[in-house]
Amino acid sequence: MFGFSSRYSSIEHPLSEVEVRRLISRHHIQTLDNAQVVLIEQAIIQRRHGDGKISLRHIDEVLRVLKNQRKISKFDYTNTMKVMEEYYQSKFAQEQVKGDTNT
Question: What is the pTM of this model?
Answer without folding.
Answer: 0.82
